[in-house]
Specification:
By secondary structure, the chain is mainly β. It has two domains: about 180 residues, no CATH class; about 160 residues, no CATH class. Helix content is about 5%, strand content about 45%. The chain contains four helices and 21 strands. Strands 14-15-16-17-18-19-20-21 form an eight-stranded antiparallel barrel. It is globular.
């Protein structure tokens, strides 16, 4: 299959492609008279779009599976056996999300994650380098595992590290609020169980460093919601590019996504792309808006994106939204978000409304 991304020209061409697919002059309506999605077509592709860069992001080198012995603890077993188990997938990524190659000094992100009731089970280590980044032992002086606490050693320079985990929260007969707390030298922050339902945030630390938090309720069978993560940057030709992995609600990679972002003929910041499964089979188009965000940005490098998912007939079938930290070099930047299929699909505008 031809590489979809190579069909695009310079960023100006992207503007014509995205803006030209609508005859509407209403800047709030991206879906009016929708004809196509630029050069992206409803065709199957090679796995990872036949692109080694996309494969790198979605490969085991990026996220190494981790067999956490805490998964065998009685707390985990009791939650899994509950009638309606409270289990959440949590992704934390920290470091130089812009991937500034000029950064040579190491930043120490060593820290811990605690939950006041329940268990933390690590599922993947994200870009951990052997000998430099590692998890600390999770047992006490008596030799018993401590499921409610996770500690790590992590250092980054011009890249990032991270941890993907599952949080198992047992039921309680009291009104005790469950909180999950992240602690490192740079930041201490807590989230309640209610906040985990919609957790999607990026916190700027400075000098290109930031921390991304993302959570969703775990569902081992659903193919209707999940998360996505990858790179968001300008390539050597100045084009806005993004690509990454499409992740299920069970934390498994379902496929990959690839696209471009830029300014359309109406001056709107828009993105367009395509989603395929792990075999390369077409799954859907994506299209929407992005914008810098006052609480996320540093010189407009950070922001949010939101949009719709479409089927092969250009009909909206779902939504996606998230945050990004733009990179200005090849393979730089970072984005993370959430997606859902099949219910409550509002019309979207250049203002984030859902």
């Amino acid at each position: 299959m031809r590489k979809i991304l190579l069909i695009f020209g310079i960023l100006a061409a992207l503007s014509l492609v995205i803006g030209g697919c609508s005859s509407s002059t209403d800047p709030a309506d991206i879906d009016a008279d929708l004809e196509d999605f630029g050069a992206y077509k409803a065709t199957d592709e090679e796995p990872y779009f036949g692109d080694p860069d996309v494969e790198e992001v979605a490969s085991a080198e990026e996220e190494e599976e981790y067999n956490d012995p805490v998964a065998l603890s009685p707390i985990v077993d009791s939650v899994e056996c509950a009638e309606r188990p409270d289990i959440f997938c949590l992704r934390m990524v920290w470091g130089n999300l812009e991937r500034d190659s000029g950064v040579t000094e190491l930043t120490d992100w060593s820290g811990k994650l605690t939950i006041n009731r329940g268990a933390i089970v690590v599922t993947h280590l994200i870009r951990f380098e052997p000998g430099q980044d590692y998890l600390l032992p999770r047992y006490n002086e008596e030799g018993y595992y401590v499921p409610e606490e996770l500690r790590w050693v992590s250092q980054t320079s011009c890249h990032y590290d991270g941890i993907a985990s599952k949080l198992f929260i047992p039921p309680s007969v009291t009104d005790e609020v469950v909180t999950v707390t992240y602690e490192s030298e740079q930041l201490t922050i807590s989230f309640t169980m209610g906040e985990l339902e919609e957790l999607d945030t990026l916190i700027t630390i400075g000098f290109g460093n930031a921390i991304s938090f993302q959570a969703a309720r775990f569902d081992p069978t659903s193919k209707l919601h999940g998360s996505l993560a990858g790179r968001w940057f300008r390539n050597e030709n100045g084009q806005g590019v993004f690509y990454g992995k499409w992740i299920s609600a069970a934390g498994r990679i379902m496929g990959t996504i690839k696209g471009q972002w830029g300014i359309d003929e109406n001056g709107r910041q828009v993105f367009v792309g395509k989603w395929i499964d792990v075999t390369g089979k077409f799954q859907g188009f994506v299209k929407g808006f992005y914008s810098s965000h006052p609480t996320l940005s540093n010189l407009a490098y950070g922001g949010r994106f939101w949009g719709r998912i479409y089927n092969a007939d250009s009909e909206p079938i779902g939504l996606l939204k998230g945050h990004y930290r733009r990179g200005n070099c090849y393979k730089g930047g970072y984005f993370a978000g959430r997606w859902r299929i099949g219910y409550r699909i509002p019309v979207i505008s250049a203002n984030e409304t859902f």
